Amino acid sequence: MGVEWLSAIAASPDVTLAAVVDLDLAAAERAAQGVVPSSTTLASVASGADFVVNATVPSAHFSVTASALRLGLPVLGEKPLTATLPEALTLAALSSLTGSLFVVSQSRRFERGLPSFKSRLSALGPVGSLTTEFYRGARFGGFRETMANPLLLDMAIHAFDTARYLLDDDPVSVYCDAYNPSWSWYAGDASANALFRFASGARYSYLASWCADGGDTSWNGNWRAVAAGGTAFWDGDRSPADANTLLDTISASLSVFVSSLRSGRPPATAVRFNVMSLAMVLCAVESASTGLPVVIDDVLASAHAAALSAASPDVAEVLRSWPSVREMS
Question: How far apart are CA 97 and CA 245, in angstroms?
Fold first, then answer.
């Protein structure tokens, strides 16, 4: 993804690459190509930058973003927001404390076909059920194939975030069954069925596998919505008129981020709005682990308490000021 973001930065009329940072200095130097500084630490190049694109592996998201925010640098970060909800709440509080914008690049919100699907839903009235079917035989190699829950933690966030966007609503509970077929090349569960109940009463179903060879859906999955006025379908990005490349969607994400920095208005994927999408993922993982339904507010309350107990005094003050996680400001 670092390579993809470098391409998006190079293609953007709004930004110029200032530096490249990587724990592996040789990798940073290759990416920088001798044109800009390269380093193994963010602090050493921070003075020459206006913001940070955090394209590290998920386990590094928290530390890199926290360092950038403490340095006064806004951050556009890859999903997932963090590995845990207490970390996510800490970064939301740190963004508020420092006044530095932190946005999660939910790039699939910028698929061209998505707004028209949402418009069709709006015309049909209240939605009773929304379903995503996602099936692909993805062979990545690397960290994904060793993760405990690769599908839920690395891919489902896109669909879950899209469901929130389509329904204009947030979930209240989830039941999830995650499993790994005998032929899977993943170490962790690469298949899952999840059912969310939203505050409106709508149900959202996610039926998916990352080890399903043959009959691939699009990377966005196949969508069906059943509403008061009828049923609407979206096949992700299969229509040539709607198809986006990865460069298209992350370039759109970058453009929205820059516009937000200039206007001072946070986008829909700002950290405080994205916490609930991460909560959907982590609550689905918890349900799959326990075999029981999970009430999302219970998990959010526990995460808030954990974040508060571990926070520095300045961050703790921000966390205490929030009436609830759903009412972060």
Answer: 36
